[in-house]
Amino acid sequence: MSLSTLPATAFIHPLGHNREAVAALLQAATDRILAHLTQAAQQSPLPPVDALPAIALPELPADATTLLATIDQALTMAMNPAHPGYLGHMDPLPTTASILGDFVVAALNNNMLSVEMSPYFSRLEPLLMREIAHLFGLGDRAGGLLVSGGSLANLQALAVARNVKLRCAQTGLSPLEKPPVLFVSEAAHTSIQKAAMLLGLGTDGAIAIPTNRNSQMDVGALKAAIAQAQEAGQQPFALVATAGTTVTGNIDPLVELGAIAQQHNLWFHVDAAYGGALMFSEAHRDRLRGIEQADSVTFNPQKWLYVTKTCASVLFRDLGHLQRDFQVSAPYMNTEDDWVNLGEISVQGTRHADVLKLWLSLQHLGRQGYRDLIAASETLTQAFVTAIQARPFLELASQPEMNLVCFRGCPDWLPADQWDAWNADLQQYLLREANAFLSLPRYRGQNWLKVVLLNPYTTKEDVGRIFGAIDFFSRD
């Protein structure tokens, strides 16, 4: 095979023939990354994208200078979650260990489809997932999978729920006499509706339950909806609770919902993609009391555990359901007596080996480190809420239950129909003048401002500066 047209650094030679050239390229790229990350606080938390490359597939190989220039451009215009003022979404700066893990895994390029294609990682993942499932109190038969995002985790959980409760893994939904439905909070993540659509229920098959004033699923409304669905000839099979809603960060009443699910023989799934991290804090894990009743749980370490994307998981009380009610064997793959090919029991086949960066992060920070991070977030949240409550022209969407605060301005010197525009203008003012990015979700038909107090380098002084800017804006 002639490789004369390829640059010397196109691949890393397995005998090390180009080691020095590759090392120089990697060192140059690493220097740029470190320079960017160690100066993140001096840049914008959300820089403008003011230039894009002219995309034309190159005929000839580019030199290192061109590659490094592309890296520089990406670094300059990318979202900057390392900035202490980046507060708008559940996107943290990553742990150093997870960056290393991603680098190692990318270099090895193993495939989580099967044990023989990822012999170490396919054994490490189920062991670690079993420990995390035990942390959630799911029992001795519990375990789970890593997947590429919370949407896939919810889809996997509800696919298993459908197959278990409706016995339709082989025949599909067409033989069913009654249309199946599930119940979910109106404040839940939109991935539940997508899952319902993909699983043949249609988005209408995810029946939205109203929330109370604190953005939690209304238990009375749920009971009425179950009765109404049964009277309408529908077949309820699952109940989805949320532990950490995307807009307000609230937690559904898990104890009561678990009891209702058991009473009506519903699969009980808890989307704790964000709030699941509270299980690492003895001081705050009681907020998730009742999650141990779940048949399945979505939990995303890529959020409050600070692991690089993607790193999401779906946990099952009885991991055996994946083999009994979901597995499709791949005859082109060898099998192991004691280890399952994870691609056969997952929505995904080929998959990145995310387990290493999670395991490295857990080792590097330890449970004590995560407890401290959660405690620090709680302290900042209290400071933020106190500052809101001290200003009559601001109001909370709900009482925060974790480190997410949703609020808006209701300036009484303006007509109410101008408040949405006032909040949108405030968001842009804070980004421009205070170097703070707050997101602007639509909730209850109105514009709100949302902060997620994740960054360990965000301080009370930063919070004070934000409210100083809010005060200045409100006087304008």
TrEMBL record:
Gene Ontology CC annotations of this record: cytoplasm
InterPro entries: PyrdxlP-dep_de-COase, PyrdxlP-dep_Trfase, PyrdxlP-dep_Trfase_major
Pfam family, one: Pyridoxal_deC
GO biological process, one term: carboxylic acid metabolic process
N6-(pyridoxal phosphate)lysine: residues bearing it: K303
Molecular function via GO: aromatic-L-amino-acid decarboxylase activity; pyridoxal phosphate binding; transaminase activity
Cofactor: pyridoxal 5'-phosphate
UniProt keyword annotations, A-Z: Aminotransferase, Decarboxylase, Lyase, Pyridoxal phosphate, Transferase
Gene3D superfamilies in alphabetical order: 3.90.1150.170, Type I PLP-dependent aspartate aminotransferase-like (Major domain) (3.40.640.10)
Annotated family: Belongs to the group II decarboxylase family.
Full protein name: Aminotransferase class V-fold PLP-dependent enzyme
Biological source species: Leptolyngbya iicbica LK
